Amino acid sequence: MTADDLARNRDNFCYRHPDRQSFVLCQRCLRTICPECQTPAAVGVICPECLRDQQKAASPAQRKAERRWSRPRAMTVADSRPIVTYAIIGITVFTYLLTLIPDIGTSIQDSLAFIAPTLYPELTGRFEPWRLFTAALVHGGPMHIALNMLALWMIGRSLEPLLGRWRFLTLYVLSALGGSVAVALLSFLTPVVGASGAIFGLFGALLVIGRHIGANIGGIALVLGINLVIGFVPGFNVSWQAHVGGLVVGLLVGLIFTRTRSPRQRGLQIALLVAVAAVLVALLFVPAVAPGLVLR
Predict the structure, then answer these.
(1) CA dist 281 to 141, 174, 192, 206, Å?
(2) Contacts of the segment 212-216: beta carbons below 8 A, 24+ positions apart
(3) pLDDT tens digit string along 136-194?
(4) What is the secondary structure of 46-87 as a DSSP string?
(5) Whole-angstrom Cα distance, residue 270 to residue 256?
(6) For the whole model, what pTM was predicted?
(7) How far, in Å, CA of 266 to CA of 287, rounded?
(8) Alpha-carbon gap, residue 284 to 117, rounded angstroms
């Protein structure tokens, strides 16, 4: 067959644009379509008319999934390396090594651990608000830090690329703060150390975000439930208060991220995160105005 024969055959031209020669067929109706009319399908391409018919025949669940995945994703980042996760692990391990130094290690840990009375000068004569966050950097032993950093690494390498570095860091810090605030409210005189509150916050956010995007969250929920129950078992020296506080904050921040994904909602997202931080700080005034509720 010569080139002239191909040019004279109307089947070799797009049915919607007769002046455009093409040799690609719609996989449903088998009509010729040019590149402008082609929409990628599971196999091959389809024409605009078949695409409309396919959309009309879609179930409500299919249409919902299509809308969800076609939304602009403000949380998607080009660089998938979990840099913040590695940085947090590095800083935490470095801090733990400092606490192992003879003579000064114990004093370093004591100055970074969280104990609620240090937030109220009228009780102790000291005001050390940094402990709300630095408690996540110190740990009680090698197994304690190993388990927490392993969990951080496992969650962070999936969650940080999804959220972006600054959102992931914000989630981690707010979750750590939430854990400390819960300890101040529910176990006022108990000193705590460890990143468990922040880790539970990551679990909570991953649970919400995974559910939102349609991922299988059964395994996450099971691991979270087991670790949460362990905190209430006698004999385990863990702070269930920090776990619950971090988890609640993580769930809330995860919900904020899923509901403000569009770039045009960036301002609303920031405002809501600031509001979460403000509420957590405001809750710290409860022991000051009602000491009888927490001094036990």
Answers:
(1) 29, 11, 18, 24
(2) 212/258, 213/68, 214/65, 214/68
(3) 999 988 998 998 999 899 889 888 988 889 999 999 999 999 999 999 999 888 899 99
(4) E-HHHHHHHHHH--HHHHHHHHHHHS--TT--S----HHHHH
(5) 9
(6) 0.71
(7) 34
(8) 11
